[in-house]
Amino acid sequence: MLLKFPKELFLASKSPRRAELLKLVRLPFKIINSSFQENIIYEKKPEVYVQKLSLLKAKSSADTIENGIILSADTIVFIDNSILGKPKDFEDAKYMLNKLSGKWHEVYTGFTLLDVPSLLSETRYSLTKVKFKKLSGDEILSYIETKSPFDKAGAYGIQDSFCAFFVEEISGCFYNVIGLPLNNFYVTALDFIEKLKIR
After folding, report:
1. Which of 52, 114, 144, 147 is most exposed by smallest CB count within 10 Å?
2. CA dihedral (169, 145, 74, 84) positive or negative
């Protein structure tokens, strides 16, 4: 195994995509819930926003375990100086997809590794640029009808079958758009494990 944590790894996320990515790289983990309310963060810089959010998510989960390493993450879509989170309803999803149509946008994921009980932490982020084709009204409505957009930042999942048609170009880490930049996570985890050894 290329990556082995000295303690049990806990994923503080309800995202099935992040769980699938950890399974992809064969990392054993358990899922725990974070009670942190995302809507209390007010920050205009997307890279700061996602890092703050992931750190607060990790810290809010720290009292749910006695010993281990918590991984938390948050992904957003950024376009026209606006942060797009998960759509609230049908109209919100339609608005977001129309906004992304025919344009480049940025996807930011911030992630945190937090050791319990020492509370030593490491927080980083990744940025990926994505270009959508010009979407027709029918394409947008057909995608929304699948219900897939409702639990995803920017109202889309790049791994969805529909989005295989939507994405024209991508610059950066593909896995970052899914919800966890695996290369950045791997490099960060190796550094974090070394720091734990030094303590």
Report:
1. 147
2. positive
Q: How far apart are CA 155 and CA 2, in angstroms?
A: 34
pTM of the predicted model as reported, rounded to 2 decimal places:
0.93
Question: 63, 74, 160, 191: which is the annotated catalytic residue?
Answer: 74
Q: Which H/E stretch holds residue 76?
A: strand 68-79
Helix (H) or strand (E) holding 132: strand 121-132
- pLDDT tens digit string along 149-180? 998 999 999 998 888 899 999 999 999 999 99
CA distances for 59 relative to 40, 83, 102, 116, angstroms: 15, 23, 38, 10
Q: Is 74 a catalytic residue?
A: yes
pLDDT in tens, 11-28: 998 889 999 999 999 999
CA distance 8 to 30: 8
